[in-house]
Amino acid sequence: MAADWSPAAGPWCSPRPQRTGRVLAVVRSGDASRSFNLHPEPRGSERQVLREIMACDRPGHWLRAQQLLQSLLEASVQPSAMPYNVLVSACRRAFEWQRSLGALSTMKSKGLRPDVMTFGSALSACEKAGGWKAASFILAEMQTSNLPCNVIIYSSALSACEKGEQWQKAFGLLAETKRNGVELDTVLLGAALKSLRSEPKRSSWRLALALLEEMRRSGVEENTLVINGAASACERGGQWQQVLRTLIEAERRGVETNVVTWSIAIASCCRPVLWELALLLLACMRPRAIAPDVVACSSAVSTCSSSWEVAVGLLGIMRELHLRTNTVTYSAAMHACEKCSQWEQAIAGLDAMTQVALKPNSIVFSTAITACNAGHRWQGALALLPAMRRQGLKTDAPLLVSVLNANSRGRWVGSLSLLRDMPDKLLTPDLRSYSAVLSARVAASWSWQRSVSLLSNMLLSGLEPDAISWSEVMDSCQRQGQTSCVGQLLQALNNGNILALCPAAAL
């Protein structure tokens, strides 16, 4: 007899259990993404907490993972290594490297053995923060535990040394990697190259080129970062020929170069005789579909110290390319004007900066004052000091010396006034300050008594006049016919009793 499947047929009409209803609802809707959690666990159970911890391995959830793990420990539940791995990884994503190490320590204190994943996450956290000491400790722990150290582990440790400016440690790890037979890759060697930026003697370019050559012999693929690292090391070492060789070889091998590569090449041509080569490199970027940026153009401007017209012209090209100029760019162009004794153009650079809403800094003002000094324009140098104060900038001793040098040639009264005002600005006049004022002895209104008075003030200030200062004082006396004073100065100099001869006087 066939079964009756109608709704009124006996047991088929009995109430469905709740979980059965959920299953049938999913089947009816065809939505396979709905959960078949037929046996829901009570909230707060061990398995539920562990599942919540596993879901915390993403940015911003390390604190939640830590709280959940602590709740298990307080409930006397001994979790496995996996929740600790999740906590270490979550701390790594949040750049909380100290907490990663704390979780690793807690794990070991509970008798659990960290695995490669645990150590790898802790190493990566240290690498992001430049914690090279902690990274070295973790690597030593792995080796003590006889865990395999692969190229990823060594790359993290080496990168931590690079960020911590420990290039010698980085190359030590590189040598250890090769001794242990670990296959080198681009990431590892690229981090070793980047670590050379902290080498203080600027002789790292040989190491960089040797490492690049080893990569090519080993068949390790080069990339843009590797080429930039090698070129940067050569640029810091003043090896512009090697920078260009690295650039040419990269293009020959088909390695992609970018604006950073070409900016390094341009910056390497910092010698005055190479400014044309720097402009040629800048021009070569456009055919390669590499758009020059403010760094590349600023580097090119810096190389034009012997041609101020080209430096100022490059600023115009930057405006045409809609590149945003900065204080460094204008400072480089003004430096070129100063080197070429174009003091008017240097001061015009200050005005141009204000027109593009750039605020000149002390370096820019110092360049303009030095340009006025070179052009014997003491009025311009003196006028820049109030402009600095209006910008809220402080004058320092070297800057005032530049003003004194320019001012003493035409207006020695102003030089004496600046010299007197230096203590009020909490600046102590040094030997250069006095020498700059003494150089005004050639002025017709200068008196020999002022030279002697300046010499006395130098001695009372604890300064030891040099041969030039003595010569200027004696020349001042001799110019005004005070030959007897010259003899007395020589005698006092031999006896070491110059203060008794010329007591300090008001300047």
TrEMBL record:
Transmembrane segments: none annotated. Keywords: Repeat. Pfam families: PPR_3. The keyword Repeat applies. InterPro entries: PPR_rpt, TPR-like_helical_dom_sf. The keyword Disulfide bond does not apply. PPR repeats lie at residues 80-114, 150-184, 326-360. Coiled coil: none annotated. This is Pentatricopeptide repeat-containing protein, chloroplastic. It comes from Polarella glacialis (Dinoflagellate).
